[in-house]
Amino acid sequence: MSVRRAIAVLGVVVTLLAGCWAAGDERLPEPVRPEWELADLPMPPGAPGRLIVRDVTACAGRWYLVGAVGGPDGGTRPAAWRSADGRGWTPLPLHPISYYGERAILYAVGCRDGRIAVIGARAGGAHGNPRVRTWRQDADGALTEVPAEFELYGGPEAVSASRIAGGAGGWLIAGARESGAAVWRSPDAAGFELVDGAPGLASDARLTTIATDALAVPDGWLVGGGGRPAGRADRDPFVWSSGDGRAWTRLALPATGADEIAQRLVRVGAVVHALGVRGSGFQAWVFEPRAGSATATGQWRAVGSFGAAGAGAVAGVEAVAGGDGAVLAMTVAAGGHRLWRSAEGGSSWAPVALPVDVSAGGDTSAAIAVGGGRMVVAIDDAAAARVWYAPSGPV
After folding, report:
1. Which domain holds residue 66?
2. Tally of domains in the chain
3. How far apart are CA 178 and CA 211, in angstroms?
4. Do 121 and 133 contact (CB within 8 A), yes or no?
5. What is the pLDDT of residues 115-159, one digit of tens each?
6. Interatomic CA distance for residues 31 and 127, integer angstroms
């Protein structure tokens, strides 16, 4: 079975299982209620349309937001904004160089040394597959599309290019090919190299793998994701480590036999948190390195579980952020998009009231970022996109 077909089958299985879990949904504690304030998000230059937002990050004292502008005919053009405080936003100039670059929806943003790099895509071609493009930030702040051959991200082996991260070793994109979990690496975001079929990272006869997120750590990289053992429909959670982005070591997270996958990674101090799905809800795992090491030695532990999948939707952790001694996780499930906060190292979680309710499905999305004592949420309810900010500490 191909990776793409396996992923599709797993999606159906998880959706069906979610219906069985609905009767056991937990009762939520009273949510934390931040003092949200609506930010000013202007229309970028060009033809007006519906604003689309997909990801937000804090980067060296600034905030960056990425998405697109949608036209009445269904067309899109890429869009990005910058802010000094999360309150007032300024559109960034964009320089697309290709047909699909001019139509891309920017959906993932990473930061390194005060500059960002971005992944975007637009479906097209005979099969309607996503045509992935990356963008680098120039010295003047503008985003320029990076030239790339079609089969670098696309072609018959394409599955996904999910998340991008920046660190001391350059840039890394996590995703999957037909061969399983894969990464793309670059020293400067001006051109990426595909690392495909890497032993320990890619699928093998015993495990079909997929990578969902990348994280820079002092001694290299971590990639989160999961794998489906041969003969099973459910997944187990994994994190892979590498010093150079080429050679990878697979680390199994504590698993229970339920469907589990690590979907997002975040580092708070020396502790790495992995967030994802476990059975009928969401799960946090933490990696605590041994004294004197970064991520070379240590132990993963399963800590707190939270939330509920509900019925009729595939649940997932879509964004994480760490700051002010806490971890924030944005989830999506049958009940819609929800925000959670843990100040206990991931062992216990409290819901955080969003400024508006957002249902799941369709073109909806929600993202969270933390920096400088402030958190920013970007919400798209498929009708309008808005951004709010609030203090990130206890409220």
Report:
1. 3-391
2. 1
3. 12
4. yes
5. 999 999 998 876 668 899 999 999 999 999 999 999 999 999 999
6. 44
